[in-house]
Amino acid sequence: MAEPFIRLRNVEKQYLTKDSVVLATEDVSFDINESEFLAIVGPSGCGKTTILKMIAGLIPYTKGEITIAGKLVDRPQTNVGIIFQDSVLLDWRDVLDNVLLQVDIRRLSRQKYEPRALDLLCDVGLDGFEHKKPYELSGGMKQRVSICRGLIHDPPLLLMDEPFGSLDAITREQISMDIQHLWMEKRKTALLITHSIPEAVLLADRVVVMTPRPGRVAEIMDIDLPRPRRLDRLPDKFNDYTGHIRSIFQASGVLHLD
User: Considering the entire predicted model, what is its pTM?
Assistant: First the structure.
């Protein structure tokens, strides 16, 4: 059996404040297989984003070990795509130039990557908007540009930190379908951080359920639902999965359903 693409073993993260130590995550262990879509769901403050940043090498872990493709993560990873909650577009660049930002920073060939940028924009319904500036776009359009920017250099790993968090309900449903479409087309290894139980179950092959801080792994669930998944055509098992995750949060005191 092939080794997991990403492996976390007994990972702990402590933050030092002025007068105390905050334990964000404790003894976190799980694997992500190549081409797998994994979601981490948990309450605010449980260390979800901290885990993503440690995998990306953006912050160091205090204890434990993280490896990607067998190599220890001990510095920022360059061969990843990251999509944040806010699109963080550059106002003075048009849509196409925002997508190509990583290409310019990495000093890659614009001639080579511009056709890919245009294809990605077409995939998310933004063909014809290539030369619009960010102020001319809706919030959902800006986030689609951010998705394209994260994928432009064809990274093997896509990290998404609550990419739907700032969007209205209808737009977030559409963009979740866009992400599923892009993932099914390219089969990148994908990690989604979310506090939405339905989004985690809708998109992921497996869901890591976290406890309140300090964040630990409460359970890892396999999601056995056929793809492509649509919110208007979900089987009863979808509700079984979401209900089970809610029961975990209820048992830990995160949810009070009575």
Answer: 0.92
